[in-house]
Amino acid sequence: MKKLLPNLTSIFLGFTFWTAGMVKLYAGHQFIGWIGPPWLVERLVEFDLGLYASFIALCQITIGFMLFTTRYKLLGGIMMIPMILNILMVTISQHWRGTPYVLAVLLAMDIFLLWQYRDFFRPLLDEGENGGRLSTRRGKSAQGHATWLAGWALQLVSIPVSFQILPLAFCLAAVGLVIAVLSFRIDRLSKGKTQLQSVN
Predict the structure, then answer these.
(1) What is the pLDDT along the chain (200 residues), one digit of tens a residue?
(2) Among 67, 75, 135, 158, which residue is least crowded by beta carbons within 10 Å?
(3) Both 125 and 145 in a single domain?
(4) Taking the model in full, what pTM does it have?
(5) Which domain holds residue 73?
(6) Residues in CB range of 82: below 8 A, 6 or more apart
């Protein structure tokens, strides 16, 4: 239960922002998601901010994917704070009702997630060694990182593909998600091989 709630929080936040970014950039905004608006890029083009809106969407995809796959909860959680604040400023300046309150709730959830990693922040603030000990967490391998990156890359590749063959784009995004989740399995296999080699 101690790890379940942070993981569920990470998955919810990740799904929210990963899909929010994908729906903004997909052809005809034909992607799943519950938070919008999907037409943000087109709306901000009127103010010569189309490139900025696309950048925000790519950040949503990347950070959301980090959290949704739960591989990079700490890094994704840290990166999410300035992203949410940027989006918040846009919604306030555009006088969108309700959206700032939703973002405030999502920000609170992100802070809760980061609180689970509070032992990592002392070295950052002190720019030195931690006064205590960092909580041990499952190690990750270079092969696992590469596997996750391949899954993330498929998300980005699926965007231009969606303008040509939408079903294929959906398949690429789904396969990328599966590959990214399998990165944990790759970690375990890599760790097992390392242990076996050390024994031999």
Answers:
(1) 568 899 999 999 999 999 999 999 999 889 988 887 788 788 888 888 889 889 999 999 999 999 999 999 999 999 999 999 988 888 888 787 878 889 999 999 999 999 998 888 877 777 766 655 666 666 789 999 999 999 999 999 999 999 999 999 999 999 999 999 999 999 988 876 655 555 45
(2) 135
(3) no
(4) 0.89
(5) 1-137
(6) none
